[in-house]
């Protein structure tokens, strides 16, 4: 995988290059100290992967991605600041590594990249628009709630619950809150996999365990794990259309 390192700190580039020597599939084709240099190298070298710092003189990492024309390389953000994690999610970053970079976290990030590249042709499975991609079961998202962080695959999230201006995610035994409205989240999710059951809930259809008739022509859905969610009468019609042969 042709890889470009973008970081304004020379020592940070040297350290990352050293760490990446352990991964033979990563071919470092160049380095850039700012967004302008990176844009020129991306056009010339056509890298498949960026290790991208966020805070840099001039344009930051997000502005660099917004300035790219055509399909963008896959991106792993490398930064000393955790407050950009939610915005990184909006750019569909493969991962978000905090400096100093932990070797085990880097291994996880590289394995995630390898999942995105089939063996043999060295090309990504699909080119994506980084600002408009619809998120499905196989996508992973960064979730931060207070001091705790997760990088979770959406197939593990069984339920999204509106809590005012926040959304609570239910996965494993975790229930973190993210600053996002349920409506805006619904626009990003694959509607064949994630269903808006009512005003407050989106359910992962893969987690539906039991369906029962409910009051006023609605349905009561029980998810694996025991969560019970009412599907409104209005949404019941669409639910039956979506899940029937």
Could you explain the architecture of this structure?
The chain folds into two domains: 115 residues, Response regulator (Rossmann fold); 86 residues, OB fold (Dihydrolipoamide Acetyltransferase, E2P) (Beta Barrel), CATH 2.40.50. Helices cover 27% and strands 30% of the residues. The chain is built from seven helices and 15 strands. The strands form four sheets. Strands 2-1-3-4-5 form a five-stranded parallel sheet, with helices on both faces. Strands 10-9-8-12-11 form a five-stranded antiparallel sheet, with no helix packed on it. The radius of gyration is 20 Å and the shape is elongated. The N and C termini lie far apart (42 Å).
User: What is the strand tally?
Assistant: 15
The profile of the biggest β sheet is:
5 strands, parallel
Amount of beta strand: 25-35%
Looking at the structure, the CATH topology of the largest domain is Rossmann fold
What sort of overall outline do the alpha carbons produce when their principal axes are compared?
Answer: elongated
From the structure provided, what is the oligomeric state, counting identical versus distinct chains? single chain
Write down the secondary-structure element order: EHEHEHEHEHEEEEEHEEEEEH
The first-level CATH class name of the largest domain: Alpha Beta
Fraction of residues in H or I helices? 25-40%
Would you identify the regions where 5 or more consecutive residues have pLDDT less than 50? 118-131
User: Number of DSSP helices?
Assistant: 7
- Count up the domains: 2
What is the CATH architecture term of the largest domain? Answer: 3-Layer(aba) Sandwich
Mean pLDDT: 86
Looking at CATH, the homologous superfamily of the largest domain is Response regulator
Q: Largest sheet, order of strands side by side?
A: 2-1-3-4-5
